[in-house]
Protein 1
Amino acid sequence: MAAGDLVGAVLRSVLAAVLSTPWLIGVLLLAIAKVVGLGRAVVHGGHGRDPRRTFSRAEKVALLERAGHRCEHHSWLLGRCRETEALQADHVHPHSRGGATDVANGQALCRRHNRGKAARVPWGWELAGMQRRRRAYFPPGSVTAVVRHGPRVRSTGVRQIGAVSGARALRNVPVDAD
Ligand SMILES: [Zn+2]
């Protein structure tokens, strides 16, 4: 039997097994999703963590202000969350995955939606949707795009000299130096 025939036979038997047990398809899809998620976490984690994890007071004020002091969580079924109390400053692209602690990577979330958010790397189309929705509620002239990563950092946590951050270039509000 030629190698090509053997591969074909193996693929056919795998396909037959999957089709005869439908739950295997679900397991297979979950496994693929998990592998893709881990791969993206590794790729984005390569940017290194921002040495600063928490947003400054001024950054939080700016995030809440441009969001109209309302949670920015959006669900396809219910639309935008209506919560306006006890809002928190959150990283759109998670800090643990190399997300910058910067207004350009920030969003206002209510406690419930901040708690329920896993350290998942958002897809580009999710950010595009967010940017589109933000045009409707951000003050005119504000930058609505999300910039995931700041400048690459050395292992010492010191920002590289001469590195210009897209996030910082896009920053539209003055921020404390702390
Ligand atoms: Zn909410």
Note: Helices lie at 3-20, 22-45, 57-66, 111-115, 124-137, 166-170.
Protein 2
Amino acid sequence: MKLELTMTEALHDYVTAISPPEPEPLRAVREEAGYLGAGMMQVPAQEARFLATLVKAVGARRTLEVGVFTGYSLLATVLALPPDGQVVALDLSEEWTSLAMAHCRRAGVAHQVDLRIGDARETLAALVAEQGAAGSFDFAFIDANKEGYADYFDGALALLRPGGVIVVDNVLWHGAVADPDATDSETAAVRAFNERVRNDKRIDYAVLPLADGMTVAVKR
Ligand SMILES: C[S@@+](CC[C@H](N)C(=O)[O-])C[C@H]1O[C@@H](n2cnc3c(N)ncnc32)[C@H](O)[C@@H]1O
């Protein structure tokens, strides 16, 4: 028996068929990104469901997102929060995140999103310095530029409470991490991040070969 399933199109369709339907507000975000020719940027529906399930599993009230784009993962997590829950959402782009906020307004959850525009390294440093922010988050999702992953992980970990969960996206980077001929800076950054996590005594973690690969870490 094989250790891992190969995800065929038929099996993917089966997983979709036995999963809960994609909520309408998320379908709208996915379709819009498709029209814009940027669908590859957002997390797949199955990954978003996994994030939402984790948010509920840890009973999250306050979450962090690094890399919002047009809001697919943002909306998936904010819809999984209780009505008084909050997402602090970090991104460089006013343009993409204005679309994300429009979707959040339509879904009636914009008041639960604290969007902070800027380089996430600086925004995270400001959050860590902010009184009361450190240790006050239950969940974090990192999905921005790969060269920043180590800094985003350190910032998110400082903001998380013990027992809080961080999910890091794209840790298998289209399979390039295992291709010795792939020497571009993004692949190198993802490999370096993965090696660093291996030696990180602050967390317990697993690497999931779901979607583009996810590292799921729990703060000790
Ligand atoms: C892959 S997209 C995020 C996709 C999103 N999670 C979703 O499901 O739709 C990456 C995002 O990271 C943002 N980004 C890139 N570099 C950044 C940086 N230095 N600081 C903050 N955000 C950054 C980009 O503007 C982009 O919106």
Note: The chain is about 40% helix and 20% strand.
Protein 3
Amino acid sequence: MLRVAVVGSGPSGVYTAQSLVAQTRVPDVRVDVLDRLPCPYGLVRYGVAPDHEKIKSLQNSLRTVLEHERITFLGNVQVGGDGLPPERLRELYHAVVYCVGAATDRSLGVPGEDLPGSHSATEFVSWYSAHPDAAANGFALQARSVVVIGVGNVAVDVARILARSAEELRPTDVPHPALGVLAGSQVHEVHMAGRRGPSQARFTTKELRELGTLPGARVVVEEAELARDPAYAPGAAPPDAPAPLSAVARRNVEVLRGWAEAGTHATGPDPMRTIHLRFFLRPVELLERDGRVAGVRFAHTAPDGSGGIQDTGAYEDIDAQLVLRAVGYRGLPLPGLPFDPARGTVPHLAGRVLRDGVPAPGEYVAGWIKRGPTGVIGSNRSCAKETVASLLDDAPQLSGRPTAPDPLAALRAWGLRPVQWDGWQSIERAEAEWGRSLGRGPVKIPDWAGLLEAAHGSAH
Ligand SMILES: Cc1cc2nc3c(=O)[nH]c(=O)nc-3n(C[C@H](O)[C@H](O)[C@H](O)COP(=O)(O)OP(=O)(O)OC[C@H]3O[C@@H](n4cnc5c(N)ncnc54)[C@H](O)[C@@H]3O)c2cc1C
Ligand SMILES: NC(=O)c1ccc[n+]([C@@H]2O[C@H](COP(=O)([O-])OP(=O)(O)OC[C@H]3O[C@@H](n4cnc5c(N)ncnc54)[C@H](OP(=O)(O)O)[C@@H]3O)[C@@H](O)[C@H]2O)c1
């Protein structure tokens, strides 16, 4: 028998476990999937936007994997930090695969970034996703104007949630306190700003188009601004493009051109909110008034002729009482594991952790902590497969190592209180029950105490 611990139950952890039990090269692989949270599924539960129900429902296929007879879910098990040290975990299993994702945000590195009212998109996403580490009262949404910095899919998610009404979000699993705040939202203007041109935006076309379908919002783009992008000219091959335009970039530009030609784009007759989609704006400073954020100063940029941008010397201030920085996620070092601070990832060779540049058999990585914080859920499947192939190649030398006869007992002896699958099912039942009592579908429990009480009963 080969005993493997997978640390992290997001897509990469679940796909790793699935690949391990589905293969036939090494028979009888047993996998324990550990997570610091009492709940599985990582960013599928705590990141994917609540109004994307179809993607959220991927949790059902992840569930089927975790219910496999040779896979055991153990939540509430933190590895590293205050939890179990990686070297101790390593003694319990033949191999450990770290699938811990990229839990924090990239910083902008401009003055004013830490002013009250300036938040990372990570914090906002965690708040509307009921992550138990997020403060339940983290956002009041008294701002009339919000600036979202970045033009990736996370920026689109947060802009869309800000632009939707509470009624639209009520059928989703948005936590109840957040729904109350969204119902009282004063937000009228959402300015989403990219430092480069529309053909270099990172959002995907489906997500962009969706902004134009919101019942209570209109999208405004500025034709003159879009036209600064050489790729905007209809049918023209961009003269300074370093590489041919990707299909996604071409489709994005088409959508934006359509909106520009229509003046503004709105679905309903009297939209309550406006999403301004802006480009060629590089944030240089967050502005302050009365100790809080009051806006963002942007430097205007223009294509530099070789695919990049340069400042034009002009500046623009956009008023905002709330600023959300959606400039990407970042992996955190896990004490006891090597870490590349420049990339925010664990150095690896085909998934094998590199210690001092040398593969360390028995320690592996998959997902965002391996590749960096890009890629959709499906990208983690092939990533996990590569890692599992390396692990299976190493299996002959791993299977001879001594391991703990009962890892669960060893985790308990270490003082941990794992939430097992039945505990997670109790959380799901409690969330369904809470939702029913509110006339809603399942509503997520937003705090640690509530989750652990639901999982273990009041004796936690
Ligand atoms: C806001 C947001 C929305 C997204 N929406 C979509 C979408 O709609 N569609 C799509 O295809 N992709 C989407 N993605 C991308 C997708 O979520 C990622 O590709 C995917 O979640 C990465 O998987 P992962 O397993 O590497 O990391 P994660 O999903 O982050 O999972 C990591 C897991 O590890 C656990 N963990 C972390 N540290 C420890 C530790 N020390 N000990 C134990 N456990 C630990 C965490 O609790 C977590 O459960 C989105 C990403 C973000 C940020
Ligand atoms: N619905 C979905 O499928 C969905 C939803 C959410 C997330 N995801 C996926 O999750 C991954 C992460 O998404 P993400 O939006 O966090 O990251 P992302 O796609 O990398 O986008 C980050 C954005 O931040 C900008 N940025 C970075 N540093 C900046 C700075 N210093 N100043 C100004 N702007 C800066 C980037 O601009 P530059 O390009 O100029 O660097 C880019 O516009 C992506 O692969 C995404 O597709 C998917």
Note: The pocket of flavin-adenine dinucleotide (ligand 1) is lined by residues 7-13, 34-37, 42-43, 47-48, 52, 55, 78-80, 99-101, 103, 125, 154, 157, 329, 334, 367-368, 375-377, 380 (CB under 6 Å).
